[in-house]
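testing teh design pipeline on a random one, pls ignore if ur not involved
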């Protein structure tokens, strides 16, 4: 007997359609249905509270439709999406949202099984590698989405953190201590009390005349490494 590994959310305004997806999913015990939604507002709330791995998403729902759900949530923050719809004319737009698949009702067991095979492959892959996490920062022009793996280093700035991408910086209303837990999963390590450095962005280590260590980043920025952190920083750099 296979163990439950992933949570699925079913979103459709028609009860019969939701029941149909449940019946199809029953053949795949590694999935459990975490909830059902009748409209886009319920989907947005359920994603936030249930954190599903996949959402089987109808396109035409009352109020907020499937595309609007993704727009509001953003592609980067969505679970895997499998569109389920009675219409085939939205396929191109669906794949522009990076949907895993696009199923036209009624869906055969064979077609659904093909989708599940692709879904399992993606979810298995995601579970063995850190997810490309994103951070949304506010700028004078609105909001900008930064990927953690493109940030070179992070420094404390009072109750904020300053995120450096090359020579550009962005402020985030989150302390360095809180951000560190997320950042460590993506290869960041403490350089000193007020700074985190992404190891993949380090070009070389140099010594100062006083015997201290400095991390030289690909951008040319030099970040000093405290004596207390020096040994662990060098060890982590050698292991990457």
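output:
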């Amino acid at each position: 007997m296979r163990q439950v590994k992933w949570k699925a959310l079913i979103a459709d305004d028609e009860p019969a359609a939701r029941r149909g997806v449940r019946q199809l999913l029953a053949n795949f015990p590694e999935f459990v249905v975490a909830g059902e939604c009748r409209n886009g507002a319920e989907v947005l709330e359920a994603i936030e509270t249930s954190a599903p791995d996949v959402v089987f998403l109808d396109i035409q729902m009352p109020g907020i439709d499937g595309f609007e759900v993704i727009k509001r949530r953003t592609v980067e923050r969505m679970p895997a999406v499998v569109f389920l719809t009675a219409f085939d004319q939205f396929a191109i737009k669906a794949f522009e949202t990076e949907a895993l698949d696009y199923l036209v009702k009624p869906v055969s067991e064979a077609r659904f099984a093909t989708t599940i095979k692709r879904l399992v492959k993606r979810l298995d892959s995601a579970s063995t590698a850190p997810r490309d996490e994103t951070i949304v920062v506010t700028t004078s022009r609105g909001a900008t989405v930064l990927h953690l793996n493109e940030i070179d280093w992070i420094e404390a700035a009072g109750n904020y953190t300053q995120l450096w991408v090359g020579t550009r910086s962005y402020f985030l209303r989150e302390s360095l201590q809180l951000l560190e837990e997320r950042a460590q999963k993506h290869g960041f390590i403490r350089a000193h009390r007020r700074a985190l450095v992404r190891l993949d962005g380090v070009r070389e280590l140099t010594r100062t005349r006083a015997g201290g260590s400095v991390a030289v980043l690909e951008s040319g920025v030099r970040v000093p490494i405290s004596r207390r952190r020096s040994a662990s920083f060098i060890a982590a750099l050698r292991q990457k």
